[in-house]
Request: fold
Amino acid sequence: MREIKRSDVNEEWAHSGIVEAGDFVFISYCVGNIGQPIEKQINGAIDHLHNRLESIGLTLECVVKLDCLFRDVWDIPAMEKVFKERFKGKYPARKSIQTEFAHAGGQDGLLFQLDAIAFKG
Reply:
């Protein structure tokens, strides 16, 4: 069995931001621009994802699945607009979920989060 690699570990939150297992990479809790409008938060989350992928030699084109978490699922059109700009037609499969974030910013804080699966084979 190949080694499972964990990086971007947050001991306080007890989670790994990046887990490499076989040919797949699992990336959790991508957020950015918290407290700003939804489009800026979506771009910030993609920037966070991009930086994590880059740290292990991958790009956004390697992403095969996204779980997109929203405070308000009616913001999906904003996400689709940003995805068209950022993924340039090489879209991953995705799921969109509405949730109440347990985050310090409350209703005016975190509006969007990404979790991703990437293929490195």
Summary: The chain is about 25% helix and 35% strand. Residues 38-55 form the longest helix (18 residues).
